[in-house]
Amino acid sequence: MRSLANPYVATAGTASIAAMAALAALLALAPSAQASKSGSDGSTGTASVFMVNPVQSSGDESLTDNKDADSAVPASAYATVQLRNLDGSGYLSGKWANVRTNTGPAAYSTSNQFLFTRHDDRFEQVMAYFWVNQAQEYLQSLGFGSSLRPVNMHAQDVRIDQYGIDNSYQTDKQDFLRFGKGGVDDAEDAEVIVHEYGHAVHASQVPGFGTSLDAGSIGEAWGDYFAVSVGLDAAKQYGWPVKAEEPCPMDWDATSYTAAPHCIRRFDRNLTVETRKGEVHYDGQIWSQALWEIRKGYEQLGLGTRAWDTTLVDSQFDYAPDTSFGAAAKATYLKALARDGQAAANLVRDRFAARHITF
Ligand SMILES: [Ca+2]
Ligand SMILES: [Ca+2]
Ligand SMILES: [Ca+2]
Ligand SMILES: [Zn+2]
């Protein structure tokens, strides 16, 4: 194994990753005890995660998966973070996320210490727990579940799976998110995790959402936008670097299938309803560009991105399961008018109109 500087904590500066992994493995061997050491009630823990993803935090577009090798990603791509809302069982389950695995052992720690690197399958379990919790905390910080209606405010089931192809998905019927391992393991990129969580958000707001081409496209667009927004908010919260383009979802997962700069999709392709292809991910870029430009407009109006995200999420309650672009844009306009005033509403109308979405 190539020797790397320790990415975790200052007090363990001389330990190798191999030694840390061995320690972590020992900690995982005692499934009878209850987690109790960190936090008065065992609800908090310590974890190693990517700062959204290694490409976004480093700006290094030349990083590649290299068959899941630890050496493919510098130690500086990891941050040590607090895990919150754990249930005290020692597993990665808690108030807002329950992580299960069909590949490798379930992460377990009697002291809620989850310090793994990417080659260890438990790293993706940790990423999934941290980022699902982070996304729910973000929604709650906007008022959802207190001053506003709750949004997917329950323990979301998540599976890490040896799913063969490079795909992850959310299924409404069984209500779990599933992350595969094609190319870069999907759950190594927070923007993949939060994108999928975005589908669960829509499903919780409007049961059965996504039955028309437009609604399906809105679902993909929202997932991409939400992934970027939650990641940027987390970067601000924790002081993490953002060295890649902001409107770029899944910079790390996309190294397997895009040329640099690696973005699975973009918010600046100037697509309109006339240039759509009838495929929800592609056509979603029509909608996500409007969402991104409205975000920028809210900043210019002095309202800020959090106000826009609040308005956007609140408006989504009003989208029909088979909505058209026009009807959803109108619902968003009306919510912006009610919450943020005429200038904000005009901005919403204009940015959708620029994509040829009118009402
Ligand atoms: Ca991995
Ligand atoms: Ca992948
Ligand atoms: Ca990104
Ligand atoms: Zn999707």
Layout of helices and strands:
Layout: H1 17-27, E1 45-50, H2 54-58, E2 78-83, E3 97-101, E4 113-114, H3 122-141, E5 156-160, E6 168-171, E7 176-179, H4 190-205, H5 213-238, H6 280-300, H7 305-316, H8 325-340, H9 342-354
Parallel strand pairs: 1-4, 3-5, 5-7
Antiparallel strand pairs: 1-2, 6-7
Helix pairs in contact: 3-4, 4-5, 5-6, 6-7, 6-9, 7-8, 8-9
Residues 195, 199, 220, 223 line the site of zinc ion.
Structure, described:
- It is a single chain.
- By secondary structure, the protein is α/β, with parallel strands linked by helices.
- Helix 3 crosses helix 4, helix 4 crosses helix 5 (213-238) and helix 5 crosses helix 6 (280-300).
- Helices cover 39% and strands 9% of the residues.
- It has a 4-stranded mixed sheet, with helices on one face.
- The protein is built from 9 helices and 7 strands; from the N terminus they run αβαβββαβββαααααα.
- The structure holds calcium ion (3 copies) and zinc ion.
- Residues 195, 199, 220, 223 line the site of zinc ion (ZN).
